[in-house]
Amino acid sequence: MAIVWSAEREGVRYEVHSKGKKLELYANGVQHSEFHPDRLLTGSVWDLLWLPALLQAPDRYQRVLVLGLGGGSLIPPIRKLLNPETLVAVELDAPHLEVARDVFGVADMGVETHLADACQWLEDYQGPPFDLIIEDLFAPSNEQVTRAVPASMQWQRKLESCLSEQGMLVMNFGDWPEYRDSALSGNKALRGFASRFRLSCSDCHNAVIAFSRLPARSVKLRRQLATIPELSSKEARGRLDYHIRQLD
């Protein structure tokens, strides 16, 4: 392992570690992003954030919004597998955005990046709705993996207001109790959505929750994976670690 980039900003120590070709971004010792130039799959939580999109046809997602870009782990699979016409990413933390642009190279992948607070950015946004919103907001100063924005009904409604009529909302929680104890685990959170799923993996404690406007079943995801060469090869099947459970 070697440290290939580092910075100290406002009491937070940022480092990018290289392990062969793989690059990992850390803030205060907590890993926030991962990038490998030859792989779409990480075998960890970042795969869980874009996987729910495959519950529907990939070409359905023409406009995609990522709130909490980090180092940009989600951008290569979104660009390769969904290839939306518009891909927008919002990141509050300047060093994270610097790593995404200059170290991981996501600026060359057709993504429009904004250095901004996601809550304020959504409040100010007046453009067309998005077909997929991935909300992955975790503070870099946290020594434990917990959400930076409370998962309230008000926050979900704000996200939902920017979602298209056939869209999907994906939200990341530090663990299952953080989701279970939030307002979004109740029936009110399903208003306006037809299906809800939990995704998890053995590599982390995170609970990723996907809300789909359209009815969906997990078997559709498995079928989609089988049709995509980058995800159905023997190597990919060995790396892809996920469990999906329908909650509605």
TrEMBL record:
Keywords: Polyamine biosynthesis. It comes from the Bacteria. One of its GO terms (biological process) is polyamine biosynthetic process. The keyword RNA-binding does not apply. Gene3D superfamilies: Vaccinia Virus protein VP39. Pfam families: Spermine_synth. This is Spermidine synthase. The lineage of its organism: Bacteria, Pseudomonadati, Pseudomonadota, Gammaproteobacteria, Oceanospirillales.
